[in-house]
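Lab meeting prep.
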Amino acid sequence: MNRPLQPAQGLRDDWSGKLLHLATRIVSNTAFCLGWSLRWEGTRNMPATGPALCIANHQSFLDPPAIGLATPRRLVYLARATLFKNPIFGALIRGLSAVPIDQDGVGKEGIRAIVQQLLQGKAVLVFPEGTRTPDGTLQSLRPGIHLLLKRASAPIVPIGIAGAYDAWPMWRKFPLPSPVFFPPTNRTIAVSIGEPIDSAPFAAMDRETAMAELAKLLAAAHARAEKLRRK
């Protein structure tokens, strides 16, 4: 008899975990709306229930909380275990439902963790680029994303984020704001959630074709987010 899957380490579904998530969401919403003029669209595109594989371009550490604020569901996302060593930042990303893993999200360990969460009916946020962009442009997708699509039967929700790279590029130690009460800068942030797409056709494609098509989805979502930003 198969043992039922349990939530991955770091994700708490009890009342304390939900309370921490709610508190983090309230604080994050205030910070992002006032500090980076956050805008979002496509909230209704997120499936209300059941598994959902949310894929997004990766610009900075601001991406997960910004995308989480744009979605009505509690998203699960993977984060390197080393990020949890800082007690303050670790508490923040735990409150945002981060699951610690030793590898990046599209490696073998990450794929197993993602499939586990999807089988539990969760909505999981994945960054197919595998790491933050070094220059603000969409990077090549990791091959693991195609393997993930073959193992997980869940609708794909393409999400684009814009402005987060300028707000906090990987070479800067701290983010710079673009307050809503000041003239807009290139650091204002926006998130665009696309309509869910059946993952089966992508799983049936060869790897290079599937990754090329997924890259097109991400590029289109990023373009929508860029257009939405306060300028």
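Slide two material, second protein:
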Amino acid sequence: MKKIVLTLGIMTALASSGFAQGFIFFSGGTTAATRMSTNSVVGGASTGTTVANSANSYYYALFVSVANTTSGTTSTAVNGVNGNYVFDNASGWTLAGIAANTISAGRFGAISQGSTSGNQVALNTDGSLSVSGIAGGTSVHTVVVGWSANIGSTLASVQAWYDGGALTQGYIGQSAVGSGLALGDGNLVSTSNAFGSSAGQIPGFLLGLTPVASTPEPTTMALAGLGGLALLGLRRKK
């Protein structure tokens, strides 16, 4: 009888752990310290908060980890084309969800994602995101990547753009890694916002302008072709 009870207890524990999930809010810009900004010169300092003519001009992806305290080799914010971004160092990081800017300067909020978007699921009724596989009450590390909407609306699109050499101009940046924030459990542990000025939360960060990748002009390519033909003709004469 004891063996049966013990077995049932183990099975129950495994089943509950399989469905473990904590909760987190994902929005920014509610205070000056959490507003998002951009620059106007490649490699330059912030020149003001993000401004949108309409919603969804910028997107943000929230990653959560139990063990990772860095993204690749850094825990500090990065921006532009020389950053070490979490989507290329994603081992141990879980994508919790996607946010988009609002029409208010420097602000954004989590959005629901369809099944074909390549992003993780919908918002809960209270506006929080579920973090699958990590139980509520667990202390986690968080990091956020933000980018301009002309790059795309999914994490896959920004990764392909960045890893492909950023051939079109856009904005990209990544937050510092936040550490020590406990996920909500829907009961005893309240659900916190990933962004804020308290311990473990992420402040606002800079989305850096990327340069346009240089490609040879048509006249340059034509001259190179003519030069190659001339060399070929000289070889034949010899």
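Talking points for slide two:
The longest helix spans residues 218-237.
The radius of gyration is 23 Å.
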